[in-house]
Structures are given as C-alpha cells and as structure tokens.
Amino acid sequence: MSDFNRKEYRAYRKNRQDGDSYFQKGVSHLIEYFSVKEKLFVWDKSKNEANITEHGIDFYTAAYVFNDEFRLEDDNRYVDGELREQVIGEPSSPIDDNHPIDTTKTRPRAVIGEVEGILFVVFVQQVGDFGEETRIISARTANKSEAKTYLMMKYADYLE
User: For the purposes of burial, counting CB atoms within 10 Å of the CB of 19, is it exposed (0-12), middle (13-18) or buried (19 or more)?
Assistant: First the structure.
C-alpha cells in the first residue's frame, strides 16, 4: 500500500506551474510526476537515476523534448503488452541553475541547437489516476542516423 495522498496531489495538479514536480512514495520505488505545459509526465525515480548514469540524460530534460514543434514521433513495438513510442527532438529548455537535477552528476548533453542536443526518448501513453500521463522509460542522445533524419525533416524547406 502506498502513502500517496490523492487530496494533496489534486491540490498540486490544480495549482501546478511548468516545471513543478510531485513525488509519490510507492512500496518499492518512487514515482515522479512532472508537468510541462499542462502535460503530465511520470517516471520511476530509480530508472531516472540509472538513465543518468548510463546515458547522461535525466528525464526532466527529456520531458522538454515534447515541446519541440519539429519532434518526430513513432510507435513501433509492443513490450509486455504496452505500445512503446519514441520521440526524437530537441529539449526546449536548457539545463540551467534552476534545473531540479544536480547537474554536477550529469553530463549536460542537452544543449539547444547542437546535434548532440537531439534526444531519443522512449515513452508510453497511459491513463493513470489523474488522467492521461506520459511515462518516460528511457532517454539518450540521438545517434547520427536519428539526428540526420530529425535535422532533414526540421530543415526540409531550406534543403530544397
């Protein structure tokens, strides 16, 4: 049984601002809720920490990829009965002093406007207790092929 407080979360959701986060303590893990432009993102805290260690990208930064108007989204595989989707894009907000993650532990790769700032994010759309949520599963820097596809689409008008 979790000690998640629905009343407290509803109050948070009603008054949230971009970049606000809320933590739900679970039995064996911690779920983080994060809001960007009225879209709710969720992830497992331990998975986020593992992703930072493995790829140098935190899920707070990954959530900002969904603000990229040129982002490429695709849904191409099922894992354990869930449709895993992917998005390639640039986060709309750089890592800065107000970033909720201790950036001394991460490699600040998400630099806007540079090829290394293009991220590849795997996510699942789900309906939770509080409506539609985007659960981030992993995030990494896009490889050369993914970055090339993204940049060709983004700058297609200039390449013709």
Answer: middle
